[in-house]
Predict the 3D structure of the following.
Amino acid sequence: MAVGIETTVAEMLTPLLHAEGFELVAVETAGNRKNRILRLLIHKQGGLSVSDCKAVDNAVRPILEVHQILDEYKQFEIASPGVDRPLTTAADFRRNLGRTVEIETTSQSGQAFKLQGQVADVIDGCVVLEQTSGKTIHIEISKVCKAYIQLIW
């Protein structure tokens, strides 16, 4: 099975970033053959600053250069995933305990449906949602198609 560049970069950098207090949320590639972009989306407890992004750049760029990964890209970016990013991992849901989320998943018959509720817990690969009706629902994170924080403006 071929491993994509996103997986390769994530496996290479996650231990270093974790040791420095950062979480690698995602590795993205974008653009066309002439203008390719490699982007790291990172998170830090308490928020991310421009100087944090610069520090991560200084730490990871030499590793990516030694492995000649940056040779394929015109741009290399480090950024926050933003408040409206999709929730995809147990860590994403834990970070949002108490917040209202909308989750799209599928039934056993394969039909898509949406659920909304507050993230009450994350247990054994499941997110526990408490709905306004008081009903508690367990959803396997691996079965989540889409999940987003419901932002209130």
About this structure: The chain has three helices and eight strands. The chain has a mean pLDDT of 91.
